[in-house]
Amino acid sequence: MDIPPENCTCQEKRRTLSHMQSYTIGQAARLLGVSPDTARRWADGGKVATHRDEAGRRLIDGRDLAAFSVEVAQGGVGEEDVSYTSARNAFPGIVTAVKLGDVAAQVEIQAGPHRLVSLLTREAVEELGLEVGMQATARVKSTSVHIDRA
After folding, report:
1. Model pTM?
2. Contact, 31 vs 22, CB < 8 A?
3. Does the structure show a pLDDT above 60 at 78?
């Protein structure tokens, strides 16, 4: 018998959920191929149901996560312009300068009040087709700036 979570006592919930695999937000994020922040936003936005365990951690039931993962894979869930990258600090902006050398290149992006400069290979700039006036995103990880074409 399924008991609505709002009418369920902790003991009943434990008994019902004890047979079901649950995943933390971090585990779900790894399985979905997104950052924990994205998985948290999806949970906060009600795109996937969560419950709390005895320690207060938010968990996602295995069946819910399985159904949600199929929906994500089919493109039915997501955020605009989701990028699969480990660099979390993204600065969308406009390319303001491209200086090409024989081997290296310098690209400047104005992202709101932020001016970002990246040194990368000439080959990378040419492969991305980066030109002044085009939209691009600078992604900062540690001391490196990665440029993604929009």
Report:
1. 0.42
2. no
3. no
